[in-house]
Amino acid sequence: MTNIAIYPGSFDPITNGHLDIIKRASKLCDKLIVAVLVNSSKKNLFTFDERIHMIEDAISDLDNVCVKTFSGLLVDYCTENNVNAIIRGLRAVSDFEYELQMAQMNRKLEDNVETIFLTASTKYSFLSSSIVKEIARYKGNIEELVPKKACEYLVEKF
Ligand code: COA
User: What is the best residue among 42, 128, 146, 154 to mutate for testing ligand 1's pocket, by most ligand atoms within 8 Å of CB?
Assistant: First the structure.
């Protein structure tokens, strides 16, 4: 059986914290899909194409990782694409309640798909896409917070 995992999110933009989870998760499965949510209620700064381009550039050296977009329910995408596991990162206790609720609801909707939590590396536990955008907006240094292409896009955007 091929183990296919999915790492879903908004990635507006991808950060080094996301990339850390992607690299570690890619070692646990045969194939990892980084899935960018299309129908998010969030107001995103970057277009899908921009977000996908930033992720593709960041994962170019990871052979078993690809980027896709999805809309609708995550579990439906999983069923349609033979995905066995959903990967989510936990940065702090504050992430846990929301993540637990999502994992349990996804399990209720589709019990063939497991959620696997990876704890964020401590050096990225304070990172979020919003905080990176805020720092970039006020011309702070984001070089150590996001992959190279994301840094270029952020500098250009602001
Ligand atoms: N490093 C850095 N940032 C991280 C992180 C990490 N390891 N883990 C989480 N984050 C941050 C993100 O940057 C993001 O920050 P922001 O709010 O400042 O933008 C925040 O945590 C959460 O974003 P994300 O992980 O992208 O999740 P989300 O809440 O935007 O989306 C989905 C979660 C896509 C998994 C969920 O909405 C979904 O499955 N939607 C599809 C519809 C569905 O099936 N709904 C039913 C679910 S039960």
Answer: 128
Residues contacting residue 3 through CB under 8 Å, at least 6 positions apart = 28, 29, 30, 31, 84, 85
Mean pLDDT per 10-residue section of the chain, whose length is 158 residues: 94 98 98 92 92 98 97 97 98 94 98 97 95 97 97 96
Residue nearest to atom 46 of ligand 1 (CA): 73
Cα–ligand 1 centroid distance for 32 (angstroms): 17
Q: Pick the catalytic residue: 51, 88, 91, 149?
A: 91
Q: State the pTM of this model.
A: 0.96
Q: Tell me the angle at which helices 48-58 and 148-157 cross, rounded to the nearest 10 degrees.
A: 150
